[in-house]
Each structure stands twice: as C-alpha cells, then as structure tokens.
Amino acid sequence: MKLDIIGDIHGCYQELQTLLKELGYHWKNDKIHHPEERKLAFVGDLTDRGPHSLEVIRFVYQIVVEQKNGYYVPGNHCDKLYRFFLGNNVKQQHGLETTVAEYEQLSKQDQDKVKEMMMTLYEDAPLYHVIDDLNTVIAHAGIPEKYIGRHDKKVKTFVLYGDITGEKHDDGRPVRRDWAQDYHGDKWIVYGHTPVLEPRFVNQTINIDTGCVFGNKLTAFRLPEEEIVSVESTMPFVEEKFRY
C-alpha cells in the first residue's frame, strides 16, 4: 500500500486541492485517482477557522465513504461540530463559528446533506487507524504505545486533545505534555493537532499539522517513502500560534 497522510486542513480547501495536484492526484470520471493507486488519509480537524470547511467535508466524505478509498480519524474540531449537529449546546468559538456561518448560508436541503455527511464520517470513523501494511497508526493528537488497541474514554480524550494536564496557559490553551518524547514503539505515529512550522519528527512519530489555517503550509507525509510534501498557505501568517 502507498499512502498520503494529510495534516489538519481547517477549511483550507484551496490549499488541499493544490497539495493533491502536487502529490499527483487527478480527477477521472468524477473520482479522484492516482496513477500509483495511492490512497489518502486525513488526521482530522477538517473544519473551522478556514474559509471553505463545508467543501472539505464534502471532499473527504466522497473519498472515505463513497469511494471507500481513504482513511479519516476525527479531531477535536470534528468532535465539536458533530456535537453541534446533534443539537448539543456547544460554544460557537475557536473556529466553530466560521463553519456554522457557512452552514447557515445554505438552503435547508443542502444543510441536511452536509450535516448527514459529517455525522456519517464521524460515526463511521475509529478513534485512530492502525494500518498494519505500513506499520503505522494515525491519530489526531497522537497516541502512546500503551493505548494502541484500547478504545475507552481515556483514549478518546488523548487522541482528540493530546496529553493534557488539566491546567491552562494564560491565553486559555490547555497545557499539554510532549508525549512523543516518551514514545519508543516501532510503529509510525502520524498526528497533527498542535501547529508546528515544520513537520516535527520525534522518535518514530511525526506531527504534520503545519498550521495551514495560520498562514504556514499544508503538509502530507508519504508512506512507505517517508517523504514530506507541502504547499504554501494563502492565509495570513499568525506567528503566536506555533509552538515549535
């Protein structure tokens, strides 16, 4: 198997299409295709903050659900949007407000369609994907070796939010431990969640959230080649959003 794993998109549909072309994908009979029969995978956080969240949902739904030719794991923003669609009282902040504003511009019929797509994507997705052919695990915020094989509430919190301590920084962001420093497994752990200026390799882990929505770039990690392919963002650069 050959796989292209794409980092947090956050509604940056234009950059996603540019990256796919860079990776060698093209459209054929209304389906996306790669001459090497490569597959796509998405580390979650498809929506929020960026300008075209609903287009990203439609695209990923087509790949993962309709074509059954890709992998998707939910991120914390996906989880929040899902809870919004369930009718739960979630705060429209930290980017959700941009997705909701897009959604409210749609006709009732189109709202129902995109809502069904997102809920199906979320409900059908595992907390993390183990891809044995490539000795790889894809998890939105990462996963420690001891949690691989488990699917309980503790694991869900970790893969959505990372190794949170319960404390908060002055700006309201949760304090997170750098779990990758303690990872000593032989499987690749491919994740996102925390924006980094460059893909961050630590032990056998790689963070590919290169902060496209904050003006840096959108990144794919190719396996088995272990190659990085990135495209520049069209969004304004927000320096304070980057931890590394």
Quick recap of the structure?
Its cofactor is Ni(2+). 29% of the residues lie in helices and 22% in strands.
Q: What does the model show?
A:
The strands form 4 sheets. Strands 5-4-1-13-14 form a 5-stranded mixed beta sheet, with helices on one face. The protein has a 5-stranded mixed beta sheet with strand order 6-7-10-12-11, with no helix packed on it. Strands 2-3 form a two-stranded antiparallel sheet. It contains 6 helices and 14 strands. 39% of the residues are buried. It is an alpha/beta fold. The two termini are 31 Å apart. Helix 3 (76-86) crosses helix 5 (108-124). The protein has a single domain (3-241), classed as Metallo-dependent phosphatases (Purple Acid Phosphatase, chain A, domain 2, 4-Layer Sandwich).
Task: Outline the fold blueprint.
Layout: E1 3-6, H1 13-23, E2 26-28, E3 31-33, E4 39-42, H2 53-66, E5 70-72, H3 76-86, H4 96-104, H5 108-124, E6 129-131, E7 136-138, H6 153-161, E8 164-168, E9 174-176, E10 188-191, E11 200-202, E12 205-207, E13 217-223, E14 227-232
Parallel strand pairs: 1-4, 4-5, 7-10, 10-12
Antiparallel strand pairs: 1-13, 2-3, 6-7, 8-9, 11-12, 13-14
Helix pairs in contact: 2-5, 3-5
